[in-house]
Amino acid sequence: VSTALDLAARAIRMCEADESEALAHRERSGLARFAGSQVHQPTLIENASVLLRVVRGGRVGSASTNRTDEEGLLAAARRAEAAADAAPPDPEFPGLAPPGEPAAVDGHDEATAALTPEDQAGAAWSAIQAADGIGLFGYFTSGETELAVASSTGLAVSQALTDASVLALAASDMESGYAEACSWRVGDLDPAAVAGEALDKARRTRNAKELPPGRYRAVLEPYAFAELLFAFAYSSINGLAFIEDRSYLSGRIGEQAFHESLTLVDDGLDPGGLPKAFDFEGVPKERVTIVEDGVVRDVVWDRRTAARAGGGRRSTGHALPAPAQGWGPMPMNLAVRRGDATMDDLVERVEDGIYVTRLHYLSVVDGRDGIITGMTRDGTFRIENGGVTTPLVNLRFTTSFPDLLRDLLGLTGQVTRVSTADFYDDRYPTASLVPGVATESFTIIGTGSGPGL
Amino acid sequence: MRGLSEEAVDAAIAAGAGYADARAVERRTQHVSTRNGQVETVDDSESAGIGVRVLVGGAWGFACDGRLDVAGARDAALRAVAFARASAGSGRSQVSLAPLEPCRGEYRTPAGRDPIDVPLAEKVELLVRAEKALRHKSVKVTEASARAMRERRAFRSSEGTDVLQEILECGAGMDATAVGDDTVQIRSYPSAHGGTSFQGGWEEVEALALEREAPRLAEEAAALLSADPCPPAVTTVVIDAEQMALQVHESVGHPTELDRVYGTEAAYAGTSFLKPEDAGTLRYGSPLMGITADATTAKGLGTFGFDDEGVPAGREPIVEQGILTGFLTSRETAARLGSGTGGSMRADGWARMPLVRMTNLHLEPGTGSLEELLDGIDDGVYLATNKSWSIDDKRLNFQFGTQIAWEIKQGKLGRLLRDATYTGVTPVFWGSLDAVAGAEEWRLFGLTNCGKGQPGQHAHVSHGASPARFRNVQIGVRS
Question: Which neighbouring-strand residues pair with A50?
């Protein structure tokens, strides 16, 4: 029996309620952040917390604490009960999840769990030394996280996760290049190689030119494509936004909305990503087909939105923690089916356009229309005559993501695991599995600064 | 708590740290939200722990522990020292800190009703009433939320600074989302993205008068469904105080953080178009532009007695008459610059290292009313309430969208417009500032979602602003 599950089980015993649920989270992590080729913000975190949700007379309330002794858990239980008593009965609350049997998933690696602060700092220095002659900025991080959900309905699930990632920006005043890698197995990572990729990219960005606004063909590296996909997912691949008609996908189930080469799933069980067995309500993760051969099939659901949608829908295992469920259910293991091209093939197909490595500061301008704005950075180039030519300054794009997906020109045969976690709040590592893509449609509306610091 | 911070600092020094500081923190937060007539969330949470920051051989280390006891304090200190040693590498890093006279003191947010002590049922009732008043036949989604926070922090440094603070925050907001056949439109009050927050007592939330404002909000959301899209143009714009607050945040606040100027945020949040030597000479905007960083503003979320390095709160100009005059600094970046004392270091709870952050950053008021700003504009657009926001990594090229806009014709507000956006380049945009409304139009907005750092941290910051007028601005850009 895991420690997190013990904690969750102890916590629900403290509750005086019709139903009670505990989500326990334990974290032990280290992040060696570097800038200017110096490790300047090394952070070690150690914590355990529990979130209680109770139901009393149809009223629902929650409370969390990281005081895990009896006194702390008891106080949290009393607060959760008081929170429930403060609310009117909630006729839409679907009840706590029944016991389920999550699939056995990979996602824990002893070697990753065993990394010491010295190992984490050493990995950061491996990256720094591989980018000799230029400033390196980024981090190496690894952590072990344990999640458990127990409830008075008999549900008791737990999972131990490991994750490690390296992120590298090689930059001087006149150049910058980016690369990253993540995995649940540290053995998959080569910090020096990631730094080398960033350095190589940076060296090619000197003397960047401007580009007139307009609609361009584009090749997006997996880093850039994953960022756009995640921004779209947040606003559209979401059961709550879907039933409230705020999603681009609302009313489009069965429609051929995208290019037939696009198949998109959310699959927490895929060992190629960062696997998850269950969601924050303890519901087993299901593989959800969102787009199949360009046809919209579904979005993701938690218990509340599935019940609201009706028609026999059930949770697909995509709930957020109870206090955050106002955002709706979220896909956190997105995967796009691979194509058959290389990045060079995509550049050749585009013939005349732009090549984008990475994006910055995305914002959804219109969720219903799928319009997203942001900037390119750290490796933007012109494509001319089927080849990558001159570096470009950072470009402001405001583009329709559905158009981009409808007008695909190709996808690479290789998919890349791209981290979608910035490690805010409690650690919950997530990643998407995406190929590089080429598209007919990427709209540039302005230019920003050049590459570099 | 004070004793635990002292214990951690002593343990770190004994283990070889040349400098150490520790923050023992207890945070209690409450969150209540309603949606479409149902109470969605009633949550009452706490988190406590200690974060220890050390310098060993001139290199930083930080470790934290969720056990707020002697064992947790000592373990965090020893792990911070070990991580600093391991991270020092070849020893090229030699951090130095701007001098600071040791401080002892206490600070507590002035407040009427402690927002945590206000019964949850009262918070629920306030939101239910407000949300009920949002209902309208064209409004498909109504939402209201409120938050409260009480945070106690005991800071101790090896230089002898020893301060205890209690910060009280609360806030609220509501949204009406109207859905038409071909468009979805949202209106928010008092500001977008979860409302606005203040330091102070629950009376600040009551003063927002959510229920009173709700019918107007619903009517505007419904009216936007049949409004024309904002056309593309280069024109004169007047921007409301809420959107100006975000404009200040993104295009002045972040670029004047000195850690960004020195590149330490390059991999994530980005850098700055400013250089350290620009202070005193760089023209940021028109002579009407005045920006002040003020950690003493009443009700501001960036207000404290001492920052998270123990530096006493201060107030200083950042831009005066359009000229950059200073930066937001830490003791480390101030020492590197050779000027200033720090005072802008803030951490998100106990489990993160402090970073250079905004405190309260204000656009200083000009003169006159909003009507006087509109007066004399033959053709322009009035933009209100943020909807989308994006700015490049050096904080130059930005695009903002607003929830609502109106044509300005012959000095009067006219036709309603939806889907408005404007875009620009920071110093060019601020250079086109030709009027700021007066103090009577100045409003304080508090936001709790400012992201920065790796691992990520949220900061709570406030901005005061009046509506402002800009010439020759590109609006209406859309895919």
Answer: A24, A65
- Tens of pLDDT along B97-153? 999 999 999 999 999 999 999 999 999 999 999 999 999 999 999 999 999 999 999
Residues B395 and A158: their CA atoms lie apart, in Å, by 43
Which tokens in the block code for residue A84?
A: 């429930």
* Owner of token pair 């990281």: A66
* B48 contacts on A by Cβ (under 8 Å): 66-67
Beta carbons of A445 and B397 less than 8 Å apart: no
What's the gap in Å between the CA of B372 and the closest CA on chain A? 31
d(CA B248, CA B232): 24
Quick check: helix, strand or coil at residue A340?
coil
Residues 454-473 of B with CB under 8 A from A: 454-458
**Site from B45, B352, B353 to mutate, A interface, most A CB atoms within 10 angstroms:** B45
Pairing of strands A135-151, A156-172: antiparallel
| Cα distances (Å, whole numbers) of residue B433 to A448, B244, B252, B381, B426 | 20, 12, 14, 15, 11
Residue A56 per-residue DSSP state: E
Contact A361 B391 (CB under 8 A): yes
Crossing angle of helices A70-86 and A3-13, in 10° steps, is 60
Which residues from chain B sit within 8 angstroms of residue A366, using beta carbons?
184, 419
3-state per-residue secondary structure call for chain B: CHHHHHHHHHHHHHCCCCEEEEEEEEEEEEEEEEECCEEEEEEEEEEEEEEEEEEECCEEEEEEECCCCHHHHHHHHHHHHHHHHHHCCCCCCCCCCCCCCCCEEEEECCCCCCCCCCCHHHHHHHHHHHHHCCCCCCEEEEEEEEEEEEEEEEEEECCCCEEEEEEEEEEEEEEEEEECCCCEEEEEECCCCCCEEEECCCHHHHCCCHHHHHHHHHHHHHHHHCCEECCCEEEEEEECHHHHHHHHHHHHHHHHEHHHHCCCCCCCCCCCCCCHHHCCCCECCCCCCCEEEECCCCCCCCCCCECCCCCECCEEEEEECCEECCCECCHHHHHHHCCCCCCCEECCCCCCCCEECCCEEEECCECCCHHHHHCCCCEEEEEEEEEEEEECCCCCEEEEEEEEEEEEECCEEEEEEECEEEEEEHHHHHHCEEEECEHHHCEEEEEEEEEECCCCEEEEEEEEECCEEEEEEEECCCC
Euclidean distance between CA atoms B30 and B121, whole angstroms: 12
Average pLDDT of the segment spanning A196-204: 98
Q: What's the CA gap between B211 and B204, in Å, rounded?
A: 14
| Structure tokens that stand for B13 in this block | 């020094």
Task: State pLDDT tens for residues A314-359.
Answer: 999 999 999 999 999 999 999 999 999 999 999 999 999 999 999 9
Cβ pair B44:A122 closer than 8 A = no
Please report the ipTM that was assigned to this predicted complex: 0.96
Segments in A270-355 forming alpha helices (H): 303-309, 343-350
Query: Angle A251-A254-A256 (CA atoms, 0-180°, nearest 5)?
Result: 100
**What's the rounded mean pLDDT across residues A224-252?**
97
> Are the beta carbons of A39 and B38 separated by less than 8 Å?
no
CB contacts of A43 in chain B (<8 Å) are: 62-64, 352-353, 455
Are A448 and B394 within 8 A, CB to CB?
A: yes
How far apart CA A368 and CA A250 sit, in angstroms, is 8
- pTM for the whole thing? 0.97
Nearest CB to A86 within list B33, B42, B455: B42
Residue with the two structure tokens 């519901």:
A283
Q: How far apart are CA B160 and CA B177, in angstroms?
A: 53
Residues of B in contact with A30 (CB under 8 A): 83
